[in-house]
Design goal:
5 helices, 4-stranded mixed β-sheet, alpha/beta
Length: 172
Amino acid sequence: MRFCTSLEKAATSLKFSALIGIDPVDGMDKGKQTPPPVLTYVPHTFDLDVAVMVIGTGLGEVKKNPLFPPCAPKGVNHEDFFNECQEPACHFVVKDYGHLDVLDDDTKGFRGKATYCLCKNGKSREPMRRFVGGIVVAFMKAYLLGDHIDLMAIRDGHETSPVELKTIEFLG
């Protein structure tokens, strides 16, 4: 939804200074996108005029249950969103965590329990939440306050992370 409103595919009066996509997904598969489709599959076409950070999960495109599709299928997931971003943009993929691992450990009710059944998950959600919280703060400090020290320390491996990163990419 954030990309959709930022790209003016949905009505809003909000002004964006930066955009963060936490394991964004555009539908069930390429050609089966959620209306209005966000992805165009043309590199660097997102005309946003703001810094963008895309956080992806290494297990998001893995099926957990043969009856259901993966929660962040290849072709409509974080990789595709990042490929359409323009400078400045960054992309972090957390290796052994899934699409719903940013949620609380204790998710109540049927929907909460379903989050453990529908998507491939990591061992514990807490490290993923800590990473996402930290990287969001580092990104906002960099692009809203001009303080790039923490974001560059994470990029360069000088800062320890509670999770293993599979991918770290920067444009610009």
